[in-house]
Amino acid sequence: MEYKSEEDFLKHYNSNEFEKLSMTTDVLIFSVSSGEKENYRKLNEKYFSILLVKRDTYPFKEKWCLPGGFINIDEDLEDAPKRILKNETNLKDIYLEQLYTFGDVNRDPRMRIVSTAYMALIDKDKLNDDLSTNTSWFNVEYKETKSNIFINLNNGIEIINLKIKKILYEKTTDRYKYAVEDNNLLAFDHALVIASGISRLKNKLEYTDIVFNMMPEYFTLGELQQVYEIILGKKLLDPAFRRIIANKVEKTDKMKTGGGHRPSVLFKYKH
Amino acid sequence: MEYKSEEDFLKHYNSNEFEKLSMTTDVLIFSVSSGEKENYRKLNEKYFSILLVKRDTYPFKEKWCLPGGFINIDEDLEDAPKRILKNETNLKDIYLEQLYTFGDVNRDPRMRIVSTAYMALIDKDKLNDDLSTNTSWFNVEYKETKSNIFINLNNGIEIINLKIKKILYEKTTDRYKYAVEDNNLLAFDHALVIASGISRLKNKLEYTDIVFNMMPEYFTLGELQQVYEIILGKKLLDPAFRRIIANKVEKTDKMKTGGGHRPSVLFKYKH
DNA sequence: CTAATAGTGTCTATTAGACAGTATGTT
DNA sequence: AACATACTGTCTAATAGACACTATTAG
């Protein structure tokens, strides 16, 4: 059929030539939480944590999953995770970044659903409201070997252990396909989303200022270093760390005292 | 409604609770092409190029666009770009990487279409078949300033100039929203796809071995350096370049002669 | 005083940048 | 011989890693 113009074509367009599908979004929300002090002198231990929701409906009823939901037909793709974040945290101006789009045919038992995963970073201390009852922060422990990723999620009550096998499929960029093993507590392919989000975050920590989205306005360099250390999973040397972040932070005239040791200058992020 | 089990739920699932949408994929295919020799002594000039298709149907009839198409309902997301690549190039084992998913409500005039863009890297010399008539390689010139990206596409007959305004919207990671200006020759939001693909490629060039996907099996270090230089858009110093790629390549006993100057050792990629 | 963190000085090792030089083919 | 590229040596500058040292507080 010949059309006279773009308008003419659009008027006669049959939008059902290809079978349509559903799209969802999943949001991986990262934050840092403080544990207890072991004694009055020590800094309180920091944890790296993600927000999970216990499903109360099928499919995967009673399993944990990332907050998410369907994309509305009249909603920009990026507005869906924003809507979900607003719902979950009631915060605005949250750091949000598209992670990856997962679209295997059988990734959802209901029907063909493609999901675009996002990751968000928040400062947990900014949360005013309590979480809804089926929502919980899980502390993350992450360990990577040559051929596996081990992720340990712990909310104080439940422990979710994930073992993910890395299968090298792109040697020039060191990219892996992930195969989830031993997972009967997490819904869908969300173990994959978590693994790729952590991996992205670790990378970006080194070449961006992304970390400040998880920090309060004022922080000590010791606290900042702690956050780097738990996310990277290794100790850093003080002088080297201070050299590297020196031009990203700004000294304030505030101090943090009361720690049973030398007080520490509070810094803030220098844009 | 209460369900007895996951199976029971799935049997009664109403898949039309949310209005479904269409998905497409667009594939940004990069390659390197050789120009003419200026004189018998010189190396032939290299260009960095992408493959575009001239649309022969509405919408955007007569405009250039990236090869792409609809995702089939029974096709893994990643299989769609593979299918398109196979169609366009008839090559297999092509480097393919998911770029980004574009999902603004009005990005397609026909209806709501979300598109996942992929980028692919090929060695053009491996192409046996001729391109179909409406397909053409465009040489890319890329220039980035603080607030703009200028992309110049040239296939020898037509020239497409793109000006893209960078709007900083995420300061901690230096991420920009792109706004396309002066574009009446490229269909859809494909200028955005091209800009983000080039930017991704430039980055990955520095910390991965991605470049070897665009190289023939045997190459001289001078040729490899040329490819780095055209993609990065700057000259590199020989000794520094050789130091950096030294452990990524392997000397062979082959030589390239006939250049009106000292012959050059042929290397190959060391996995 | 002690335990714990805060913060700095400095030496060394590694890596990156720059430039100059030598080598060797084709015409 | 001349030109263009191939390839290497070496000096210098910048950055990263390591360690030791001083500073300061609550209890």
What pattern of helices and strands is seen along the backbone of chain A?
HEEEEHEEEEEEHEHHEE
Radius of gyration of chain A (Å):
22 Å
Q: How many helices of chain A in DSSP terms?
A: 5
Shape of chain A: globular
Low-confidence stretches of chain A: none
Model description:
The structure is a homodimer of 271-residue chains. Chain A has 271 residues and is α+β, with helices and mostly antiparallel strands. Chain A has a domain at 215-269: Orthogonal Bundle (Arc Repressor Mutant, subunit A). Helices cover 21% and strands 35% of the residues of chain A. Chain A has helices at residues 6-12, 79-89, 190-207, 221-232, 238-245, and strands spanning 22-34, 46-54, 64-65, 68-70, 95-102, 113-121, 135-144, 148-154, 159-170, 175-181, 219-220, 249-256, 264-269. In chain A, strands 1, 2, 3, 4, 5, 6, 7, 8, 9 and 10 form a ten-stranded mixed sheet that branches. In chain A, strands 11-13-12 form a three-stranded antiparallel sheet. In chain A, a hairpin with a 7-residue loop joins β12 (249-256) and β13. Chain A is globular and about 80 Å long. The interface between A and B is large, with 55 and 55 residues. The first copy, chain A, binds a DNA duplex (27 and 27 nucleotides) through residues 39-43, 220-222, 237-240, 242-244, 257-265.
Features of the shown structure:
3-stranded antiparallel beta sheet, 10-stranded mixed beta sheet, 271 residues, globular, DNA-binding, Arc Repressor Mutant, subunit A, alpha+beta, homodimer
